[in-house]
Prior knowledge:
The complex is a heterodimer of chains A (about 110) and B (about 110). Chain A has no helices and eleven strands. Chain A is mostly beta strands. In chain A, the strands form two sheets. In chain A, strands 2, 4, 5, 6, 9, 10 and 11 form a seven-stranded mixed β-sheet that branches. Chain A is globular and about 35 Å long. With about 110 residues, chain B is mainly beta. In chain B, the strands form two sheets. In chain B, strands 2, 4, 5, 9, 10 and 11 form a six-stranded mixed β-sheet that branches. In chain B, strands 1-3-8-7-6 form a five-stranded antiparallel β-sheet, with no helix packed on it. The chains are: A mainly beta (about 110), B mainly beta (about 110). The interface between A and B is medium-sized, with 24 and 23 residues.
Amino acid sequence: EAGVAQSPRYKIIEKRQSVAFWCNPISGHATLYWYQQILGQGPKLLIQFQNNGVVDDSQLPKDRFSAERLKGVDSTLKIQPAKLEDSAVYLCASSLGSEQYFGPGTRLTVT
Amino acid sequence: QKEVEQDPGPLSVPEGAIVSLNCTYSNSAFQYFMWYRQYSRKGPELLMYTYSSGNKEDGRFTAQVDKSSKYISLFIRDSQPSDSATYLCAMDRGSNYKLTFGKGTLLTVNP
């Protein structure tokens, strides 16, 4: 069974630029999550999708972050404009039930 | 007070030692308790998943939950250098599979 795929693995941008991350969940997993993991911290949930609908986006900074999951499969997370404090690893996870499977993450550095 | 508290370590032990990792939580609504292992530059992977108070064993790993004290533990017996990683506790209210993570404890097992 293929795991959760994410790209790119690494991204360096300057502040005020925009960036997008892509996630392909495990086939058949209805629920998809985006997490932000700052160095030395645990993952923090940004947004949760059930199929192509948003279940929870209460911790998503909506003035600069957006996410979509078209057709209930792949998802993209966008940051526009980026701030220095957005430097983190962005993890995508998917699940059928309670067990979440994580991708390798995208490491974003904002300079 | 954070919902989930976890000592970030770092923790360094010799090979073969018994390791004890702990988390406390303040929200009694948490019903499901998980331990994830995260190797450097990788996504978290699920190690243990428990619901009720008591112990759950899987090979060299034992997860312990004490709901009355709001305290969970992960024990690793006969620790190996390959166990060197960050260990994250995570908790879920059980309603929509939304996880709250601890900060993670960095463990190094020295050969």
